[in-house]
Each structure stands twice: as C-alpha cells, then as structure tokens.
Write the structure tokens for this entry.
Amino acid sequence: GLVLLHPHWPAIPNEPNVWLLTGSIIVIGTIIPFQVMANALRYVKPATVSLLDAFEPLSATVGSVLIFNLVMVPVDWIGTLLVIISVLALNITPKSKIEKVDKIE
C-alpha cells in the first residue's frame, strides 16, 4: 500500500506534446503493425503470419541490441528463452493429432 501513497516514478507532464507522442507510439507501434499483419493474411498462410507475429518480441529485442546497443541482463535472456519455448510449444503438433494418410496405390 505504501507504493500508492508515495510512488517512485515521476509524474508525467500533462502537456500536448506528451499526448501527441503517446498517440504516435500507439498508432505507429500498434495500429499500423496490426493492419499490416491483417493485410498479410491475403498473401501468406495464417500459420506463417501467426508464427511471425509470435516472434515479434524477439525480433524487437534483437533489433534493440543491434541498433540501440541494449545490454541484455539475465532476466532478459530468461524472457527471450520463454518466448522461444512458448512459440515452439504452440506450433508443435502432437503425434496423436496427426491424421494418418493411407497410401494410394
């Protein structure tokens, strides 16, 4: 409860440029990529689009390391590993779910 009484983060200034930048982040970082992904479904299989969408946090991390010189700490590596494991787990079909196809002679 003490965090609510004395927050450790600074107050965000209520200025027009802050709202403009926040709106820009929302549009550029969320709405446009979602629309691009929806349009990609016309040309690419949904499974491929889904896989690429699931790897977006990982590609953003790689881009941050390469472009902005982000230094990865152990918790970042754990998060990266969890993203990779979850994407693989979602895309692996168990053998019991694979339909057997009879050979056509």
Remarks:
- The radius of gyration is 21 Å.
